[in-house]
Amino acid sequence: MKKTFKGRPVVPGRVTAEALVTHAGFNTLASFQKSLMFGDKNATCSDQNNPDLNGKQMAGKALCLPQTIGSTTGGMVLYTAASMHRQPACLLFSKPIDSLAAAGAILADVWTDQSMPTVDNLGEEFLDYVNSGMKITVEEDGTVTVESQG
Amino acid sequence: MASMQLTTEEQEMLDGRQGEAMAKVMKTLVMYGETFGASKMVPVTGKYGHLVTSFGLSVLDPVYGLMDELIKGGALSKQQFSIDPRPLDKNVPANLIQKLFFKIMYSKQEMYEGQLTQLGLLDNDPFTCACYFDEVGNTPKEGEILSWAESSAVVYANSVLGARCNRNSGIIELFGSIAGRVPYFGLLTDEGRQADWIVEIRTSKKPEAQVLGSAIGMKVMEDVPYIKGLDHWLGAELNQDARDYLKDMGAATASNGAVGLYHIENLTPEAVRLGSSLIKADAKTYVIDDAELERVQREYPCIWKDPSAAPKLCFIGCPHLSYEQLVHWSKALPESLRQAGRSKVAVPTVMTTSPAVLKKFTATPEAARLREAGVVLSYICPLMYMNNPMCGKMPVITSSNKLRTYTSARYFRDEQILSYLSKGGSL
Known about the structure:
A: Glucose Oxidase, domain 1; 27% strand; B: alpha/beta; five-stranded parallel sheet; four-stranded parallel sheet; 19 helices; DUF126 domain-containing protein (chain A); PMDh-S-like_dom (chain A)
């Protein structure tokens, strides 16, 4: 079964990846801290306050989230993750993107050779529908298709 | 996305007339502004910048590479800047393994500070999250446009000083200082400074700043609150006590949520000048009473392995303590110890402040009293200390809600902290 959502491309791009979903705000520093520090190429999430993500691999996943929260180092952390090829495959926001996440997505786009398409304003229905493990396809124009198994 | 109108000079910067590095800086700022509907850039009018990334973490090689690219490309800051606290201080207690980790973790500190100096770092040891203290001297005036990061400093500059700054990320804030302009959106605009929430304080006593800020932050997230009833407890003058209270409350709103600006009725500059006209017609209301503050604190998770463990360290001063707060602790702590029949703290305790305040405070009788009580005075960033995995495992207590939010440290109100420091034992 497929369902399509339309958002705004903040950093346009095309990608297909497996969904990783958080319903709570994504604390960028807390999530990436340990994996960056200890060379974990899978970018295993280390945010103990986020039961949706803690212990799960973030690198290469379609990260579905409402917005990011926490330290203003957030954008720098996303940029660093992208530079080290440990970034999510894409960032998909149900809400309008926040300034820290936008900084990270744009820094990664302008200052690295890595791709991390970023779409915001996908709506609450998007986060209600999508579950971790579903197949996600992102188009240049901000169209996001969610495909459930079976 | 809407296109920004750039001046001739800005367009030339974007086109590479001032070098490739500056072109990439401008491209980043333009994309950033267009994401938020900015129609133009505006000049940075604050005298100094403030950066959040003060730590030479060994894993941040991409950041150092970017800094090198800026320096080699001649894209240096047009204004000098202060920066968050240093991560290391040998006076702060740490065992051998923790020290080894610190050495590895922050192995790029010296090299990074060299880069910062080339980019525009102030030369007065400006390593503090509270750069707006008089002793530090980075105190913007009302209406000035800033390019800062550090959430606690941004919310203070916007709310208490009436300056204008968005909640910028690390690196972006430096780019604004390099370009000398920032995209005009959000908290830089009159509309963006209107309140989305009315917060009504109906407590029976002065609310603890750190818990009140936490409650507000978790409720309003990135919105702007207009807080009524707090002037009853703080008065109608932005004196030192009120500024210290708002420093700590604001840091909690910014870390527990994402608040970049709050207004306090009859107290903060814009609320005094514009009053309830700052409140949006469709503003929501949040009532805070004693029970609500108790609920908020009760629900903080404890992520210690053994929740009843005896604390091994206590941090006070995140954000950094003001001179007056240090003086307060120099009276309250020895008195509490005396009443408990002790001469030294039962839990090793570190109080943190800016290097400039520390320099002024260190020779005073009050500093001697704290040292006699066993307190370590430091300029360190407690967060960066706790980021050491070997330190993060320790049972650490704090009166900082920001430290609680980002680390395993447990939050306690000031009077609870005083009690633990005076009596010791398990929690």
